[in-house]
Amino acid sequence: MFKLNFKIALRNLWKNKGYTLLNIFGLAVGLAGFIMILLFANHERSYDTWNPEAAETYRISIRWAPGEEEYSSSPAELAPALKATLPEIEDYGRFYVWDMFQRLVSTGKNELYFDHIMGVDSTWFNLFPYQFIYGDVGKSLLSKDQIVLSSKASEKLFGKGNPVGKNLVVNTTTTYIVSGVYKEPNTPEHMDADAFVKKSSSGDGWGNGNFYTYLKIKKGINKAKFEKKLNQAFLKLPILKEQAWLKTAQIYLTPVTEIYLHATSSQDPAKRGNPTIVTILVLFSALLLVIACINFTNLSIAQSVKRAKETGVRKVLGAGQRNLISYFLTETIIQCICALLIAFVLAEAFMPVLNNLMDTNLTLFNYAHPVKLIVQISVVMLVVTVLAGGYAAFFLANYEPVKVLKGNFSRSVGSLWMRKTLISVQFVVAIVFMIALIIIRQQVNFIKNQDVGFKKSHVMVFKIRKGESRKNFAQLKQRLLNLEGVKEVSRVNYYPGVKAMQVIGREFEGKSVQNLSMVTVDFDYFEVMGMPAQLGRTFSKQYITDSTAIVVNESAVKKYGLQKLLGQKWIDNRTIIGVVKDHIQKGMETAAEPTGFVVEGRNTNRADNVIIKVADKNLTQIVKGVQNTWEAIEPFPFQYSWLDQSFANVYVQYVRLDKLFNIFTYVTLAIAMLGLFALASFTVQERTKEIGVRKVLGAETSDILKMLNKSFLLLIVVANLIAIPLAYILSNNWLSGFAYRTIITIWPFVVAMAISVIVTLITVSLQALKTAKAKPVDALKYE
Amino acid sequence: MIKIENLEKVYKTEEIETTALNGINLHVKEGEFVSIMGPSGCGKSTLLNVMGLLDKPESGSYKFVDTELLTLNDRERSNFRKRNMGFVFQNFNLIDELTVFENIELPLIYNKVPATERKKLVNEIIGRMNIVNRSGHFPQQLSGGQQQRVAVARALVTKPKLVLADEPTGNLDSTHGNEVMELLCELNETGTTIVMVTHSSHDASFSNRIINLKDGHVISEKINKGRTEELI
Question: Has the keyword Signal been applied to this entry (chain B) (predicted)?
Fold first, then answer.
């Protein structure tokens, strides 16, 4: 039976090559899009899944008092204190934030910068059990001069081969001995790492909260319960008797695999993805697939007019409904499999485009979790087969043989309704896509043109690598200023676009000042950045006291009520000398944070980046001049960036989303048009005779076009009515995630509606015109 | 009223050419009831279609009163048709999705008759055709005879000068067939010109004149005396 079904199915598909191709290709496009997004989503969700201990490994984050932000950093003392009281904690590992800085690593032959050398506990590899290629894990981080390299770092420095025992000189002064090389895991990690050394601080008591603590707990322990227990244990720690302020703290645990997408703490050094974008993409690619399935269904049913008689004959000859369903499903399965194969080809071909767009390095056939992918795709194929072929199979199998043989089929009101609904659904999706695309584009343009509060063009940024350079900066500054094209020179630690900042909490005259972002700068910083004082003045060399002054932004004025404090003392005994406009630091999602600017001094962080405002002409020459000068000051390879380019990183994901949506929208619209085309051709076929009768009774071509278009336009109007509120809610929701957002106007909706109507008119008219213009006698003869 | 001269119509398919009409000459006077008879494939339906401007002949002349119809373009043909002609088909050709009332109303809509006027005309003809209680029904809820009455009503509602009937009783039993023929006769008596294609000599006996067609030629013409006398 199956063999026969298979044979007939193949013959039938071959006979209707055109439809079959449309069917398969439409589905293949939908599948390809879905598979690609699936790969991307899998990648985003695969962070740290290489770790076999991941299920038991958590990162600690703390909210020091209710209402404050949650921070993922903690004091070094915390983990050992907790482990001593809680037997559930098997092990802990910490890294120290001040160990994370760019280092110049030299083997004598090779000299390279590394950004991600982490200072960790020697227990680190118990929590993150990398596979060591060379060296012994247990002995790898016992002393301060040992360094464990990633296989990539090792290859860059030493080439292939075993480097264990060899020496490395870091920042020209410190010598390390390579103690091990581990294989880079096959899934991405929330912390990038090139190498590991022992952390430089064993903890300075409870006051230094700049450690990141990971706990490994025993298997099978409920996270929520343990979290509760952890907090109870914390409150019983002896230290709380001495340091009462710790009492309000609340400790949270984030599973290590969830840090990338779902961590809630701010000031996070970890890489952080955007779960909303992942969800949006998966959702929309699934929708794309669904409308491809709908198309498949509609095309199959449209074709079924021709098949009805065959079905009728089969029924008369004794075929049961089951045989027929299994027969039609066979046809669908053959087409689905063909579509899947084409989808693989399409996905492979367009993968570089996606990789380029999303800045990823995904491949179809070289994947960390192949079994997972195969299972996912199989499930999807099953769903697709049922979705795409199910309705058509039941529809065809349910024809009543007598009616079919009499030629009276396809007129069943129910099926027409179903097909109209399906087309409407397709258009709802397409319209939502169009509106979303327009709004995303508006928002991206809004972001790009948003007043960021500083002038970002023609500002060079590079790192100061020697402490001396900072100490003598006034002199170096003069040397830089003497260069042609250099307009202003200053220093800063957290220039706009840097997400991790220093945030302090102080008390001032009994009032608590919490969550103030502190930026350390040098004189002329505001001149380089083009941020004039709104009130008072900015730092100036003329005033000696400016080294203990503070400039605040408008948000700080608002939050702490500093309106009347201009010229007065404030926290840390600093005099507020001026107020500058808010600027955008981390991105468009977060409103400007209350920020204070101070000149580098003994009690401040280091302002370790040089920023230079340069003229807008002869850039290459200017850069060359700066490079020559700076290389004479610091004998390291010169690396610099442009502020506007590095700042663009804060919204690059939305530019990507915009581009991706572009593709989505066109594909969806194309598939929806295909569906419409099929339904229109089906309808025209079905109504040929009616059209003939109407022409006999005096209808003109235009009357017929009007009549056919009217029924479709009604569908499109209904689709618009459903899509518009849906799109409004979705985009409003999406926009609410931005502190800086565009206003939703009526235009995206009008444009989407107009496009959908025009597309419909054209598609339907193209199909209808032939029949409408034909001689009525031909239409009347049509059976 | 109708003067047809040297009408020729050829059907071409990929392999063969079939001459359906081969130099037909035919005159129909106003108020006449003409039957066209002949074996299958003799071209009688083609002739009727050409007369109804549903199909175009290759050559010849077709004058309606004094207007040459074969030189008209599509739109003019359509306009002429809807003002002057009514059609009755063997298989009724009612539109399934429309009610009896709406089916009958349709030609009036295409003739741009105002709504109130339309309602009046349709109700009038529904009354005449004795299908008042069926006006809200859909075609498939009616018997064949009733359906053909609706089709006749639809053909007549515009008060056409010429009614073309293509085997109007072909799908009906004899009782219902007779009803329809009587209807056509009544219509003819009120002055409407009728041209009917039929297989049935019984039906043809209702007409004034019978024209026999074979292989695209008129082979004979017969005045139906009984009927003519009746007329006088």
Answer: no
pLDDT at A521: 93
CATH code: domain of residue B183: 3.40.50.300
Confidence check: pLDDT of A256 > 90: yes
A583 touches chain B (CB under 8 A): no
> A762 to chain B, minimum CA–CA distance in Å?
22
Q: Do B93 and A700 touch (CB under 8 A)?
A: no
pLDDT in tens, A306-342: 677 677 777 777 777 777 788 788 888 888 899 999 9
Q: How many angstroms separate the CA of residue B231 from the nearest CA in chain A?
A: 30
Q: Long-range contacts made by residues A466-474, C-beta under 8 angstroms, separation at least 24?
A: A466/A634, A469/A633, A469/A634, A470/A600, A470/A606, A470/A607, A470/A608, A473/A522
A711 touches chain B (CB under 8 A): no
Distance of CA A235 to the CA centre of its chain: 38
Q: Which of B78, B111, B152, B167 to mutate to test the interface with A (most CBs of A within 10 A)?
A: B78
Q: What string of DSSP letters covers A82-120? A: HHHH-TTEEEEEEEEGGG-S-EEEE-SS-EEEES-EEEE
ipTM: 0.84
> Is A403 in CB contact (< 8 Å) with chain B?
no
**Domain assignment of residue B81, yes or no:** yes
Enumerate the domain spans of chain A: 2-43+275-447+657-781, 72-221, 466-635
Full residue range of the structural domain in which residue B140 is found: 31-56+71-231
- Give the nearest partner residue to B110 out of A690, A697, A775, using CB atoms: A697
Q: Name the DSSP class of A545.
A: G
Residue A277 tokens read as 């974008």
How many angstroms separate the CA atoms of A575 and A549, rounded?
5
- Taking CB atoms and an 8 Å limit, are A693 and B95 in contact across chains? yes
Residue A745: both structure tokens together: 């106007």
Nearest CA in chain A to B96: A690
Is position B215 within any domain? yes
Cβ pair A516, A503 in contact under 8 A: yes
Domain total of chain B: 1
Answer whether A699 sits within 8 Å of B78, measured CB to CB. yes
- Plot region of A510 (φ>0 → left; ψ -120 to 50 → alpha; else → beta): left
Q: Is residue B66 part of a domain?
A: no
Residue A580 pLDDT exceeds 90: yes
Q: Do B55 and A694 touch (CB under 8 A)?
A: no
Give chain B's residues under pLDDT 50.
Answer: 229-232
HSE, CB side, 13 Å, CA atoms: give it for residue B220. Answer: 6
| CA pair distance A300, A291, nearest whole angstrom | 14
The whole-angstrom distance between B79's CA and the closest CA on chain A is 7
Interchain proximity B55–A780, CB inside 8 Å = no
**B160 domain residue, yes or no:** yes
